[in-house]
Design a protein that fits this description.
Blueprint lengths: L1 E7 L4 H4 L13 H14 L6 E4 L3 H14 L3 E3 L21 H11 L13 H13 L10 E5 L1 H11 L17 E7 L7 E9 L14
Parallel strand pairs: 1-4, 2-3, 2-4
Antiparallel strand pairs: 1-5, 5-6
Helix pairs in contact: 2-3, 5-6
The site of 3-phosphoglyceric acid has 11 residues, from helix 6.
Length: 215
């Protein structure tokens, strides 16, 4: 059975400032680097054979720390990027007007093609995240990959594996450097295909990892 570990990157400057990142980028904070080192220590115990990361800076930096600890290289995959948040990228969450908040609500209220202007829909993100996850099935037998991605992207992936709609991801808090695990199984009794073994484990972190929506 293929086990795939999912890690959200360490805290960034804009996470701490409550600024929307999307496919824009900001550096890891000192706390974020410490989180990456702690998740790397846990990853060393998991038998990781591949580290595959979103190509954005915050995920690459986190992935490099994990890969070094596990003695493997980093492979980049842009399909693992965060949701493209269009015209709201770089904006502070607390400065959005009612219309702009309405655009964000569209993402999570079931509007099928809801998107922020110039941005991506949750369905489009879900399709690319599942494509990146399914690519792990082509790795050599016995592989145990670890994917480094983003809060909404991983929340959408885990939610849809559970059979929830892509926009349900706001009901699942995947904090900075949390570890989730999904397994691919063939079972006549249980659900065949991907199943969620763990979601949002932060027991390896020595300080509370705050979700940027909870300050
Ligand atoms: O700011 C964003 O785009 C998301 O809310 C969180 O994205 P991140 O997981 O890349 O920090």
């Amino acid at each position: 059975m293929l086990q795939v570990y999912l890690v959200r990157h360490g805290e960034t400057q804009w996470n701490a400032e409550r600024r929307i990142q999307g496919q824009s980028d900001s550096a890891l904070t000192e706390k974020g680097e410490r989180q990456a080192e702690q998740v790397a220590e846990r990853a060393k115990t998991l038998g990781i054979t591949h580290v595959i990361s979103s190509d954005l800076g915050r995920t690459r930096h986190t992935a490099e720390i994990i890969a070094l600890a596990c003695g493997v290289d980093v492979t980049l995959d842009s399909r693992l990027r965060e949701l493209d948040m269009g015209v709201l990228e770089r904006r502070n969450l607390d400065t959005l007007n009612e219309e702009e908040e309405g655009w964000r609500r569209q993402l999570v209220n079931g509007t099928t093609d809801g998107r922020i202007p110039d941005g991506e829909s949750m369905l489009e993100m879900s399709e690319r995240m599942h494509a990146a996850l399914n690519a792990c099935l082509d790795l050599p037998s016995g592989s145990r990959p670890l994917l480094v991605s983003h809060g909404m992207a991983l929340g959408c992936l885990v939610s849809t594996i559970l059979g929830l709609p892509a926009w349900a991801e706001r009901r699942l808090r995947l904090r900075n450097c949390s570890i989730s695990r999904v397994d691919h199984q063939h079972s006549p009794w249980l659900a065949s295909g991907w199943v969620v073994e763990t979601a949002g484990d932060i027991s390896h972190l020595d300080a509370p990892a705050l979700d940027e929506l909870q300050r």
